[in-house]
Structures are given as structure tokens and as C-alpha cells.
Amino acid sequence: MAHRRGSGGGAACAVSQQDTWWFPVLLALGWAVVLGAVGGWLTQLDAWYRQLRFPAWKPPDWAFGPVWTTIFLCAGTAFVLAWKAAGTSGMSRGTLVAAYVVNGLLNMLWSLLFFRRHRPDQAYVESYLLWLSILAMLIVAGSMSRWGFLLLAPYLVWVTVATALTRAVVRLNGPFSG
Question: Does the domain formed by 17-173 have CATH 3.90.180.10?
């Protein structure tokens, strides 16, 4: 916390919200909660989904919730660590926020395409953009914090598996239209 002397001789606090410990935590929580809530709302395991054929190696449906919760917890922690390591560099912090925002939008778009529009083929193509956005998060956070990089690595692995799973769904069930 920075203090400076005011003209009246008293100490005046000059602390930016961005320099407090709770600001990056709130940003990370907001990102995770929005993604979890919107992703959950977009995910419909309806009759269309139940009739899809899946490869034998697909994880059980109940596993996806805990996996995503863990990934969002790790990614949020990576965000906070990278934010803190960036110090007061607005450019670094801005790049970090931008990487997370782009990733969040692409994450929600995948769920929209697959579950709401019933277009696994489009979700498969989009998953490459999502994968690249995670790579960008890794690079940006990793340039600020080694732990940030390590905490984001499972996200990249999971989306790599999810991309292969989406490709299998397309091959087993396509073509899709609509």
C-alpha cells in the first residue's frame, strides 16, 4: 500500500483497486462463474444428445462437471498468479485479461454450437480456435508466472482430448445440417 504526504501534512492513501489483492481474485472468479453458468445453461443433455454415438473411450457424462470445475479453478489461480507477477504493468495485465476474455467467448461458443445448435461439425472446427486461445493464455500467463503456465497446462490437455472426442462424434454421426 502506497502512502504519500498530502499538502495538509496528513497521510493520503494512493492505492489503485488494481493493486489490491482482491481485484484479480474477483476478475478470476467472475470469469470462472460466468463460464460455468453459461456453459451449464448451454449444455443440454437432451434426446438429441442421447441418440449420438460416442467412441468407447469417452469419459462418463458425470465426469465433465468435476473436470471443468478443476480446470476453471486452476485457470483462475493462474490468472491471479500472473496478475500479481506482472506488477503494475498495465500492458501485461491488459494482455492477460484479453487472453482470458477471448478464451471465455470461444469456450461458450463451443457449447452453443455443439449443444444448442446441434452442430458438432462446427464445434469441431471452432475447437481449434479454442485450443489456440488456451495456448495464448499459457504463453501470456507463463511469461509472468511459471506456476501460471503449469496450472493452465491441464486445460490445454483437456481441450485436446475434447477436440479428438468432438472429431469422433462428427465421424460417427455426421453429416450435420441446420
Answer: no
pLDDT in tens, 61-81: 999 999 999 999 999 999 999
Instruction: Tell me how far apart the alpha carbons of residues 135 and 139 are, in angstroms, rounded to a whole number.
Output: 6
pTM of the model: 0.87
| Rama region for 9: left / alpha / beta (φ>0; ψ in -120 to 50; rest) | left
Contacts 24+ apart (CB under 8 A), 136-140: 136/99, 136/102, 136/103, 137/75, 137/78, 137/99, 137/100, 137/103, 140/82, 140/92, 140/95, 140/96, 140/99
Summarised one tens digit per residue, pLDDT across range 96-116 is 999 999 999 999 999 999 999
List the domain boundaries for the chain.
Answer: 17-173
Q: How far apart are CA 131 and CA 144, in angstroms?
A: 20
Please provide residue 132's backbone torsions phi and psi, each rounded to the nearest 5 degrees: -65, -35
